[in-house]
Each structure stands twice: as structure tokens, then as C-alpha cells.
Design a protein that fits this description.
Elements lengths: L6 E6 L5 H14 L4 E5 L6 H10 L3 H7 E4 L11 H5 L4 E5 L1 H8 L5 H17 L3 E7 L24 E9 L6 E11 L9 E2 L6 E9 L9 E4 L9 H18 L5 E2 L2 H10 L6 H13 L3 E5 L5 E5 H4 L10
Helix pairs in contact: 1-2, 7-9
Length: about 325
């Protein structure tokens, strides 16, 4: 699922299953007797992570011998990673990227990301490890919208894959949770061949992640269900695909083919008779921006507006021959 020596991102809202997906990858490496480094910038204690691995079914012996949990409390300096790199891990998970950048004392922007990446990500990649960065969706200056891809992941630094998780059923103890996993960037291109394309350019439905902790559950605590060739793309993906079409059409119908904020868009959708959950609209906005069908523009009072990409293209007017 992850490419050796390349950089990946797991993105999604809080409790969307990013850590579960990362631990699924960790499990595969531990079972194969490979070293795994897990650097957690949000939890100081490994207890929760180890409990999850045990529930998945990883033997304690594999955890003790090949799982290396690190919880930094001070900025990492040159040389601190040398011992971890020397283990030649096949997988390195960085959990909580925004918190990591804050700890390092760099701004959460592209310049700060470049510094953090050079000091933390690149050494592991150079040693051949697949690096996976888990991060929740940050709120931006417009409180009505979520930035689904995170400031630090909007650049072209990812040479592996970017995964976006959308929760369908909440995860919890003694419950059965599920999230849908999409690939929105796949530089080598092998993952897309295993998934099903959606109507959004560049977005592929890869799998459904299920964590089943119900009393009647079988032995498979965590399962990734691949899409079947003879079944349509899941309903949530279809709903999101339909929403992107509606959102794009609605924005294109506004003056100047633009809206000044997500709130303005919500109002325009209601006036058009569309009853769509705000979360689906926000996800559709993210997908359309990623696909370059919408362009983000400054809105009123610090909000973020949107204009259709076709309206932003320069136009040349034919002159009638004299």
C-alpha cells in the first residue's frame, strides 16, 4: 500500500480512521519482522498505540522487538534521528504533523514545512523507509470551511501517495466503525489501478476501512475491503460526486462565476432547492480545488471564496475585419 523510500500522507477529519489506517500498514511490516518507527507528536505515552496493535492481532514479541515508539517533547536536533535511521526501518509514521511543526518552532506554511521535512522526513527516505504523515484537517480563517488537504500537503513534495479518509460510521469501543479511503495523489500510479475512479478527476475510491469491536465480531478486528469489479462506487462517493457537479454549477451561475465564502454558497444552494449536508459541500469544494476546477480567491472579512477555473482563464476577443 505504501511505496518504499517515498513520502505519503493520511488526511481526514478527527476520528476518521487515519491512525487505524497507519496501524494497518504498521501491522504488515511487524508481521514481516521489519522495524517500524512511530513518532507521535500528540500522545506522550505508547499505551494506546500498543493496545491498538494488540487488538489488531500483532504478537507482543513483534511489538517488543521491532516497534519503536517515540514521543518528542523538545525540538529535534541534528543527530537525534541517527539511531532510528540506523535500524533501517521499512516504515516511519509521523502522527500529528501540525503539532510536530509547532514543536520544532516553524510556521505551519510551505516554508516551515520545507524545514521540517528536510530535518525529519528526508533522512528516513534516504534510508529507504516509506514515510507516512498523519494529520487532521485544520480549520482555516473561514470557520465555515475545512481545508481537506492541509497547508503542508498542498505542495508537490509527496512522491508517494496521498490518502483521504471520509468517515461513514464512527469508531468506538464495542462498536463497528467504517471509513472510506480515497487516493487523491499517486505518483507511481500503482494504487489507482487497484481502486475505482470517481467522477472527480484524480480521486480514486481505494477501500473501505472497517474496525469491528462488537461482541459478535469475528477474528478480523481491522479489515480493508477493496471495491468489487461488479459493484458501483459506494453511495457516499456517488453522493460526493453528485455534490461536486451541483456545487460547480451553482458557483458558475453566480455573478462573476464566484462566491465570496462557503456560507454564501450554502445560501445559494438552498435558494436553488438543494438540501445537501455542509460536510459534503465542503468536501466537494476541496475536491474541485484539487482538480483545478475551482480557484480559491480572497473573500469578505478574511473568508475564502471560490471562482470557477474557466471564468479565470484569459479570454481573447475576435475583432471583426475592417
Amino acid at each position: 500500500m505504501l511505496y518504499p523510500g517515498r513520502e505519503h500522507a493520511f488526511l481526514g477529519a478527527t476520528e476518521s480512521g487515519k491512525t487505524w489506517l497507519a496501524l494497518a500498514c504498521v501491522t504488515a511490516e511487524l508481521i514481516a519482522a521489519h522495524h517500524v518507527v512511530y513518532i507521535h507528536f500528540e500522545e506522550p505515552d505508547p499505551g494506546s498505540t500498543i493496545e491498538r496493535l494488540q487488538r489488531i492481532g500483532v504478537p507482543d514479541s513483534a511489538i517488543l522487538s521491532h516497534f519503536h515508539f517515540v514521543a518528542p517533547t523538545r525540538p529535534m536536533r541534528r543527530g537525534w534521528l541517527d539511531d532510528l535511521v540506523a535500524m533501517q526501518p521499512t516504515l516511519v509514521v509521523l502522527d500529528g504533523v501540525n503539532e510536530a511543526m509547532t514543536l520544532q518552532g516553524v510556521k505551519i506554511d510551505m516554508e516551515g514545512w520545507a524545514v521540517f521535512r528536510r530535518n525529519v522526513v528526508v533522512p528516513f527516505k534516504a534510508a529507504g523507509a516509506a514515510v507516512a504523515e498523519c494529520d487532521h484537517i485544520p480549520m482555516n480563517s473561514d470557520p465555515s470551511r475545512l481545508d481537506g488537504y492541509g497547508t503542508v500537503h498542498k505542495g508537490a513534495t509527496l512522491d508517494g501517495a496521498r490518502f483521504v479518509l471520509t468517515n461513514d460510521t464512527p469508531f468506538g469501543r464495542r462498536g463497528r466503525g467504517a471509513s472510506h479511503v480515497f487516493v487523491t495523489k499517486d505518483r507511481p500510479g500503482y494504487l489507482r489501478a487497484e481502486g475505482k475512479p470517481t467522477k472527480v478527476p484524480g480521486k480514486t475510491f481505494l477501500a473501505t476501512l472497517v474496525v469491528d469491536d462488537t461482541p459478535t465480531a469475528g477474528p478480523d478486528f481491522l479489515t480493508l475491503y477493496a471495491p468489487q469489479n461488479d459493484e458501483p462506487v459506494i453511495g457516499l462517493a456517488d453522493a460526493l460526486d453528485n455534490t461536486t457537479d451541483i456545487v460547480l454549477t451553482t458557483i458558475d451561475a453566480q455573478p462573476d462565476h464566484a462566491v465570496k465564502s462557503a456560507r454564501t454558497l450554502f445560501a445559494a444552494l438552498r435558494q436553488s432547492g438543494h438540501q445537501i449536508r455542509d460536510e459534503l459541500v465542503r468536501n466537494a469544494l476541496d475536491d474541485l480545488v484539487l482538480a483545478r476546477r475551482l480557484i480559491e480567491i480572497p473573500g469578505a472579512r478574511g473568508a475564502r471564496g471560490y471562482r470557477t477555473a474557466s471564468a479565470s482563464q484569459p479570454h481573447t476577443q475576435e475583432q471583426n475585419p475592417a
